[in-house]
């Protein structure tokens, strides 16, 4: 039997300045409800005082395992380059900015020189102004051209919310410049009647990579005047373009550069990120161009107090009698409630859409008990909402009508939400880059701010709140992307050929892997070579060959059965687990039950209900080895990396009681299997190693399964991934290796670089895994060490002590191997 752990959708290093360790044990506790009374209007406590208030009450202070204090920092001014148009400088001064920070002036200078540049400074450091000033200056220059459109700019954001927010900012800043700057958002929400005006007259067009891929590039003749005049391409929050998504975006940008060259343009790329490691390297890989780095942050910063918070144990028992901590969801809802009662503006970041909805509902109910008017000042924000719902929430947040928001990472990126007092992060978001992005949403007006990371009952979260050095002593992760991934490159070669016949000269732009792929595309009758160019042969759109976000096809529409009203959408890759028949679906504080899921028509019918439970899908997974690329001996065992095929099927779902997580029952499902060809790292052990580890056949499956779960939980510390981006399978006797084997694989077609990183850091990664299991205080395993929140086998079997002994023997073999055999 194989035990599996599936990815979702199978589908300035900081020096700690003070440490506040907590040595008291956390007592068994029921849900704690501190005394709450509305705060005095306009009161704004210092971050440390605000944390003290949140920690007030029995057992609460013991939940803080560490407090990090980042001191305030003074700013350094400079002067704008003298080549900036005086009208633009006047508009900037009218906005209250007399002098730029030193890094802003440097970025503007490089942009004016025609150098592509990446600005990698902290949140709220004025990155937008750094690239906007040279861009606006170019647009004003262009407005004096005979046709009135002598220069254009294309702005790319990873989310619609960020593009809309930036459009507001551009319009406000450029208002004194009149019609020389015509800014507009062009995305899937743009009304049809506005699109032609934007194509013909827009000079600053804000969009996203998806619209560039599917809408703009395939229709480039209609965009010819815009592309011919393209002076700058702005890529905001460029660190988000990593993994498979980033690899797709890299190829989309190469297609853009190719078309621009056809129209006689060679745009300068201006990139921005608050959390990028080796930013110039990552930017060059993304754009295919040399990029200058500006990373010396000269902006001032308010004090940031960052607390690590571990929920208490409860009196409940989980699977196999394991002790259960209070959920991060319930704990974060309490903190959001307390902050709102005190009149503090805050965002609670949640990892899932369902979690965002649940936290807002709990907070609204508890706020209504204090003051009914407060309940309406908290809401949820997540992907899948209708455009008008998202815009209304964004306006309410900007205006201050909303005090608190429970949001997914859709609000993590760059939105200029000034004046937030606190950020609560419900569960480690997967990378240090995301952690600092989310924490940086508070204090953006220069005031002090509080950030609280609430740990989930999960191996990595538990490890981090007790090992703060892993967060605060380490830089953000490197951006991993592979534009040469054949699963990524092939559809973009087809799309490029459909846009303009693909010549041999073009192949240099797309990379060396083209030579091997083109014959395969010809054999598949996707491309045909005529004389010196390859042509797209099909009637359908080549851009539809791939979904650059890897969401697996057409989104599933969620429709209210009784009224036919469209509530929102769910990504196709998540449909089997999120909107299967019987699933609980939350939307804008209302609860619905899924009555049916039609995969052929991509529709889930729901009806409003009030179940006292949530649902969690369960699945089974099989894995086969297609090709072993690298194999190194670890003693008698082997560490390997290569290509695999994964077959997954959702087979049932659990009903869990709200707040406590108690399992109420399981229901079978009949859904089709799905296959995935991807990359994996795996390790094997021999009979002699099992004997040395005192592992008999009765506990072998549980020991392997426990080691697999814990290793997946720890991998995000070593690779730029989220545990939901990776999957795993453990098998007591795998048919391809003929040995007990544990696999960890990338949950994206063709791989995403995570398993490769795991292979090259395997010794450190598995050592940390062993430590995380061994140091956990539970007896037989719990969610803090070896139990997984998404195990397809119900966390059965698991053997904690066996996993520790197994990893000890495996790592002993690694230590005995020569340096060349330790996989880096």
UniProtKB/TrEMBL annotation:
Family matches, as SUPFAM superfamilies: P-loop containing nucleoside triphosphate hydrolases
Region ranges (Disordered): 25-48
Record-level Gene Ontology MF annotations: helicase activity
Keywords for this protein: ATP-binding, Helicase, Hydrolase, Nucleotide-binding
Domain Helicase ATP-binding: 108-294
Domain Helicase C-terminal per the UniProt entry, residue ranges: 331-487
Alphabetized Pfam families for the sequence: DEAD, Helicase_C, MZB, WHD_HRQ1
PROSITE patterns (UniProt xref): HELICASE_ATP_BIND_1 (PS51192), HELICASE_CTER (PS51194)
PANTHER family in alphabetical order: ATP-DEPENDENT HELICASE HRQ1
The protein's name: DEAD/DEAH box helicase
Species the sequence originates in: Streptomyces rubrogriseus
